[in-house]
Structure formats: structure tokens, C-alpha cells
Write a structure and sequence with these properties.
The structure is a homodimer of 400-residue chains. By secondary structure, chain A is α/β, with parallel strands linked by helices. The first copy, chain A, contains eight helices and 18 strands. Helices cover 28% and strands 26% of the residues of chain A. The longest helix of chain A has 25 residues.
Chain lengths: 400, 400
């Protein structure tokens, strides 16, 4: 958060809240909204809510097609997150008056060359062993579903994975927070404040960039990739998070384009071993993503990243060449050593982590917010989140 | 100009000027500045000066390396334009306090494959017959000049062609216009007004978007690709101009990149027959251009255009992959049937054309402004511009 602009807090700000949420991405906003609905007084601190990784996301809700060998507990959490999304979207739309753009047309995963097809077949076998619902399709069947697909696509798998519009979701969450009484502070947290002895620390609040203290019994760290940079945490409470840059392209279908949709459902594929996805929106936008780059806190897209995305996406769906290039945008995912989030109590009493969601922040926002609300109000970690305690890395090295 | 925002003109605006310049790109701004320096009262009308084709340009001053078979009179004009630029840049910097970013490190033209090398050799022969100064270089000599060049570049030609920073040039021109007393009106011209009989028309001024008339003895049409859409012109005075979209990419060298410059001079090349150029700036920016697309008045970049530029530029200078992708930007060049500009008097007395500069607007702005000033103040067309009278197409069809 060190590079973000800092604005002064409003005069007349109370000096005490029940909970301070540090970070206003999709996770922090969801937590703040939920905590306020439970009757707590909540402040959310972010210089520019919703404009970090949440703004760069594509919004895939993709537990099935993101399933990876050895990450079965994350898969179960993702499936729970996806199952929670339809009711969450309805609650969010009702609370905010904004539609978060949930699309439930499914996801088609395709293979481009023979090596890609072999990888897809292995994935189908793996999915079958786990009981995932994946429907095998020939290349011809894929093109029947998506007529604009390249003629050389060799086959695919159809899954139920859906998508939400990440930027509409953020807008809806900001509106829901404001309407439910979350105090939004457009500044940064300078330091987490604690009391007690080293063996028995308790959070007492935060200090803002202008030096002003905010007292609170609970602090929720939802600062994404910036979470480990927060000052004031003892070493064993620093979250094991590092930034992994992702670049997406936003393309727009021109008005009256061939009288047809370019794409009706999320399309994922491997092209010569490289992964690419295309997520369509109701308004004709197609989001192409995403690179995975270890580049520290540099959140600028590179020419090479843009080129790779266009190269691979064109091979799956050649017509994207005719779409308007709106922007290339990068964000920093909060990645963890096991690719799973850090959610729950820490070694510091009252300090709750809600970070490390990596590629799955939008998907896991509803279940994370439910869990954080349960931790803060009932001191209970729900079953679904038991495996994702931040304590599993509490002796991890702080990232350089 | 129909899609641009319209703002109301200021109260207290005089209802009469010596000259009204329609369009505030590099051509219109240069003309207005020159005319004001000649002591005339000048109004310039543009809703957003400098943000059309001038904003999308790369700023190459490239008569030699743009020379084309059958366009020798345009080549002579371009050489005159390039020769005029150093003094023009100095005058502009003195008048405005802004440096237009002239770079005189030359231009290297290279070939990527055998076919490209054959084309380059033909171009070298053509240049030699015309007496152009082109120095042949082996691939190794090219890489000695530009160490980051791809190892498979087969050879090249070194030319004296320079470049200016198009956006700094525009900023300097706006400042020079304001400081010299040009009245800048941020609106559009609704109609050119004329008096007299069909056989003997004379311009009497313009009518602005809000209906306000501005009387003037002279009107200079410098509205680029929008020039033929101006209402009120008799058919034989409608300029034979059509829009040709060009997309450029703006890349930025990261701070302390390898401790080296990516590129020291303009690099042009053909890659499998496609033309691409890379123009370096003092601040580490590299501009990659440019597509040539017939797409009417649609000025949005396409994904395919961006992809082609990156594909070809990467093959000449692979390190651009590591540069920050700042933006893709498109503009509409005012193209003419013979690729040469339309500068000078028209069939309507007092109506002067300064449009149709195609790929050469920045290069030809100084000589065009000198010529327009001579036409308006002395009723004389300088020798250099004699061949570019708009009357040569005065019976051309209006573009659809």
C-alpha cells in the first residue's frame, strides 16, 4: 500500500470501532459488509477501494476448471464458494441496487495441439476420480456450442463453472457497505497496534497514515498482496503472502458485430502448454487473461505479457482480432506457498486474516466473509475454512 | 468532428477575425501560430486541440525512409519539411517555453527475412537513383549501432531521418498559440459560410456549434480526416480526404533497465513483408507503429492491430517484451488519392485548405504553415507547395 495516494480522514471520525478492516478489495468489502450486517461498528481503510487485484480480475468462479493435483481441500472450498455465489449475488443486488453480473452459462475448456489434448485428457481422468462434473466433447461439438471457435480446436470439456463481473461486484460491494453504515476511510493504515506481552498479544486498533489512532477489539487484514508489509505485526503473524502479477486484456465487441455474439460462455484453453481464458460479459466485453508473473510489487503490464495473451487467445478464438482493444490492466494477486487462502485467527488475539486468495478472490469472497463474521462475532471458524488457518505458516519467512 | 464534445464559446467573443482556422491538430495549430505572428487576428476552433491524429502519431520526420515509387514530388516536399524542422523546433521552443523533442540520431531500416532483404535492396537501389543518402550496413554493423537488435536481422540502411515528440510538439504549439494571441475556441464548426454566386463564391466566415457566426475574410480548413464532412462547401471544394486508421503502442522502459537504452535511434523494418517502426524518446518511451486500416471514422484500436504490431516489433527488437505496456492508441489519418497533402487556395475565394497530410502531418507542419501564411497574407503559393494544390482533385467524389 506504500505507493497509494493518501488522503486525510474526515473530521469528526469516531476514535473507536468494533472492527477495523484493512483493505477494500472484494475480500475486505465483503467482510465489512457482513460484519456491519451482524450489528457491529465497522471502519474500512483503503485509499482506493476495489482498485487492486479485484479491479484486474476476470471474475471466473471456476473451482472445477481450476482444480489442481494435490489441492483437493482448496477444490472443496472453491466448490463451496461457487455454491454460495447465487444467493450472495442476490443478497448483494438487494442490498446495493447493483447487479454483480453473475453469468451461469458454464465454461468450455479446449485443447489446441496434440500435447494440449493429452493434458486435457489427463485432467478429465483426474476430474472423474474426484467426481467433478466434466462433459467430454469433440472439436465439432465444441464448435457447435461456440461457433466462433478456431477450426483446429481438438476437443474440450464442458463444466458448470460460472463468472461474475468483477468491477460490477466491487461497485455493488462499495454501495452495500455505504448503505449498511460501514465507515469508509480513504487512507492507509500506517501500523497495527497491539497491547500485552509478546506471549500474549492482543490487537488494540490501527494507526492511520495521518497519525490518527483508531481503537478496535478486532482488526481484519484484507490487504491482499500488501498484507505482509503492514507494520506492527509480530513475525509469526505476518501472513505468508507474496505478489504474483496478473495481466488481463479488456476487449469490446463492436456494435452489431456480425449480428452475433463472439462467445456465449467462458472459454479456457491450453495453447502449446500455455493457459489462457476468455470471459464474456453481457455488454459484449471479453476479458482475456491472465499472465502469472513474479515481479515483486511492479503492477504494470508488459508488452510481452500482452503479446502472449493475444497470441494464445487468437489461436482459440480468431475473431477477437476484430474486437476493440480497450485496455491492458495488471494487478497483484496475494499468493501463498500452497495456493490456498489465509483466513481466521492469528497468534495475536483479535487479529483476523482474510488474505492470500491468489487467483480465487472473487470466488471465495462470500465464504470468506461468512467465516470472518463467525470468527469475530462467535469466535468460531466454520468447518469449510478449518484447513485454511493462517497459523499453518506462522513460522514462515517474511517475503523480502 | 461530429462525435466530439461541444462546449459553448465564451461570452464577449468578437464576431469577426481576420482568419478562422478549423481544426487544432499540428497543422491547424502551426497555421494559427504563423498567421498570428504575421499580425493577423486568428481564431482556432477545435473541441479538443491536439487530440486527433496528432496525438496518435509517432512523430517520425522521415522523408527518406518513407520515399515511395512514383511519389518523388512528395519526397521533395518531405525533404524540405525535414530541413525546416530544426529551425522550426527552435522557434517553437522559444515562443512556447516547451521543447518539442526533436531527436536527430537518424533512422535505421532493417530487414528480417530473405524477402524483406530483397525489398530493402530494391529500396537502396531506388534511393541511390534519387540521390538519397542511405548507408548500407550488414546485420553485424546494424547490431553494433543497436546492440538490442535481434540476432537474425539480415542487414539494413542508415538514414538521416529524425523524429519529434508528437505530444510535446502539440503542447508547445498550444502554448505558442495562446501566448501569441490566437483565440482558441473549444467547440466545433457547424458550417462554412459563403457569399456570392455559384461561379464566384467567397468565404465569409463560419457558424459555430451553438449557432454563433464568426465573420472572417479567410478560413483555413485543417480538420484532418473530418475536413470533407464540413457543411457549407460547394462540391468542388470538398477536399478529397478519407480517414485511414493508424494504431500505435506506447511502451516505457522500466527505471534502470539493464543500465542500458533499449534503442538509440528510430528503427524501421519489414517483417515478412509487414512494415513496423519503433521510435525512442528521451524519457525511455518507445512508440511502436503503425497499422494502416480503412475503417471509416471508427478510431478505436483493435486486438488484431495491437497483436500485429507486437508480433513484428518483437522480431526486430525482442527486449520490448520487458517494457511496460502503457497504451494502444488510434487516430485517423487524413489520406488522399495520391498520398500527398492538399494545401492552398480552393474554388472558393478566401477558403484555404491545409489537410490531407496522411502519414506526414508532423513532418509537413512547418512548411504547410509557412505556405498558408504566404497564401493568406500575400496571395502567393510558395514553390515547394505548388504541386499540392487542392484543385487537382476539385472534381473528386465526396467520400461516403
Amino acid at each position: 500500500m506504500s505507493t497509494r495516494p493518501t488522503s486525510m480522514t474526515a473530521p469528526g471520525l469516531p476514535d473507536s470501532f468494533d472492527v477495523v478492516v484493512v483493505g477494500g478489495g472484494v475480500i475486505g468489502l465483503s467482510c465489512a459488509w457482513r460484519l456491519t450486517e451482524r450489528g457491529l461498528g465497522v471502519a474500512l481503510v483503503d485509499p482506493d477501494p476495489g482498485h487492486g487485484a479485484s479491479w484486474a480480475a476476470a471474475g471466473m468462479l471456476a473451482p472445477t476448471t481450476e482444480a489442481s493435483y494435490g489441492e483437493e481441500s482448496l477444490l472443496r472450498l472453491g466448490l463451496a464458494g461457487a455454491a454460495r455465489w447465487p444467493s450472495y449475488a442476490a443478497e448483494l443486488a438487494a442490498a446495493s441496487g447493483c447487479d454483480p453480473g453473475l453469468r451461469e452459462q458454464g465454461t468450455l475448456v479446449v485443447a489446441h495441439d496434440a500435447g494440449d489434448k493429452a493434458e486435457l485428457d489427463r485432467f478429465a481422468d483426474y476430474g472423474a476420480r474426484l467426481g467433478l462434473r466434466l462433459q467430454s466433447m469433440s472439436g465439432q461439438e465444441c464448435r457447435r456450442l461456440e461457433p466462433m471457435l478456431a477450426p483446429d480446436v481438438r476437443g474440450g470439456l464442458l463444466a458448470a463453472d460460472s463468472s461474475a463481473h468483477n468491477r460490477l461486484t466491487v461497485a455493488a460491494l462499495i454501495a452495500a457497505c455505504e448503505q449498511s453504515g460501514v465507515r469508509m476511510l480513504a487512507t492507509t493504515v500506517e501500523q497495527i497496534e497491539t497491547t500485552g506481552t509478546a506471549a500474549n498479544l492482543r490487537v488494540s486498533g490501527v494507526r492511520l497514515a495521518d497519525g490518527q489512532p483508531l481503537r478496535s477489539e478486532h482488526v481484519v487484514v484484507a490487504a491482499g498482496a500488501w498484507s505482509p508489509l503492514l507494520a506492527g505485526l509480530p513475525e509469526d503473524a505476518v501472513p505468508a503472502v507474496r505478489p504474483v502479477r496478473g495481466t488481463v486484456l479488456r476487449l469490446m465487441t463492436p456494435p452489431d458485430y456480425r449480428g452475433a455474439e463472439v462467445l456465449t460462455r467462458t472459454l479456457r484453453g491450453t495453447v502449446a502448454g500455455a493457459h489462457v481464458y476468455l470471459v464474456p460479459r453481457e455488454d459484449g466485453e471479453v476479458v482475456v487473461g491472465a499472465t502469472m508473473e513474479e515481479a515483486g510489487y511492479d503492477d504494470r503490464p508488459t508488452a510481452g505479457g500482452v503479446w502472449e495473451l493475444l497470441r494464445d487467445a487468437r489461436l482459440l478464438l480468431p475473431v477477437i482480432s476484430e474486437l476493440t482493444f480497450v485496455e491492458a490492466w495488471s494487478g497483484l494477486r496475494p499468493a501463498t506457498p500452497d495456493n490456498a487462502p489465509l483466513v481466521g485467527p492469528t497468534t495475536v488475539a483479535g487479529l483476523v486474516m482474510a488474505t492470500g486468495h491468489g487467483r480465487n478472490g472473487i470466488l471465495l469472497a462470500p465464504v470468506t466473509a461468512d467465516a470472518v463474521a463467525a470468527v469475530v462475532t462467535e469466535d468460531v471458524v466454520p468447518d469449510a475454512l478449518q484447513a485454511f488457518s493462517p497459523l499453518r505458516f506462522s513460522h514462515a519467512q517474511v517475503p523480502a
